[in-house]
User: Fold this.
Amino acid sequence: GDSVTQMEGPVTLSEEAFLTINCTYTATGYPSLFWYVQYPGEGLQLLLKATKADDKGSNKGFEATYRKETTSFHLEKGSVQVSDSAVYFCALSDRDYKLSFGAGTTVTVRA
Amino acid sequence: DTAVSQTPKYLVTQMGNDKSIKCEQNLGHDTMYWYKQDSKKFLKIMFSYNNKELIINETVPNRFSPKSPDKAHLNLHINSLELGDSAVYFCASSPGAGNTIYFGEGSWLTVV
Assistant:
């Protein structure tokens, strides 16, 4: 079945540091890939997505590129802020009616 | 305007009670979902409805019963609440298979 494996946390960074959260997937078809973010005490928000190989999703300074050859969709941000502290979820949708989520990575950014 | 809204946001109740969480979406989507997030933040789908028809039921205890009176609403009723039901329940919607899923703010359920 479809599955997503993402880097275990927690991750603690200083402001302006570079953030990478690794995400790899297993799917039988050609899935769409997503990153969702959950800020403390809030719901899930779509951060970015990519629907086919080599697509790059970007939003709020975050980027992720759909790499079919390595089955990966790593999330990156060049300079994090305290406001980026959140839980980040990688997810895939294999053209069916549900998202399969990774376990989530908690990121804390210190001033 | 809130795209996917669910109520209540917080719910504290005793074991054995029956409770409902309501969800409405104003995005015109055909598909709605309930997801459960446990204490370790792990997210798992519970149910999905497409055009008011149940299409996904992921081995959820039959104490949980979803109801979709129309495409814009998907309510979750839980009977005989147990301690292990304490979690955050997210309602969500999407235009259809393979599309982006949009989540509500979540309902924090605590069973005491």
Observations:
- The interface with chain B takes residues 32, 34, 36, 38, 42-46, 49, 87, 89, 93-99, 101, 103-104, 106 of chain A (CB under 8 Å).
- The longest strand of chain A covers residues 86-93.
- The mean pLDDT of chain A is 94.
- Chain A is about 0% helix and 50% strand.
